[in-house]
Design brief:
Blueprint (H helix, E strand, L loop, with lengths): L1 H14 L4 E6 L2 E5 L6 E5 L9 H13 L3 E5 L4
Parallel strand pairs: 3-4
Antiparallel strand pairs: 1-2
């Protein structure tokens, strides 16, 4: 699972959008500011066949994006 998380983390880093800013003409600036969400939630199935890979594929990209609060919900068995 650690290797899978490392692979997902590396791929998520490649997908991160880049901030940019340009002066279109004097007095006019164009750009994009990238900010992480404050909180994200992930539903992790756990019924008859738990899928721990789901947490890797949801929480790890949120960590890479810089989301400070990641909430995980999973049903009881």
């Amino acid at each position: 699972m650690l290797e899978a998380a490392a692979n997902v983390r590396a791929y998520a880093r490649l997908q991160m959008p880049r901030q940019w800013m340009r002066a279109a003409r004097p007095g006019l600036r164009l750009g994009q500011i990238v900010r992480p969400l404050d909180t994200v939630a992930a539903y992790i199935p756990a019924g008859r066949y738990p899928l721990p890979s789901t947490i890797v594929m949801t929480a790890v990209p949120a960590q890479v994006a810089g989301v400070p609060t990641i909430c995980v919900a999973s049903p009881g068995r």
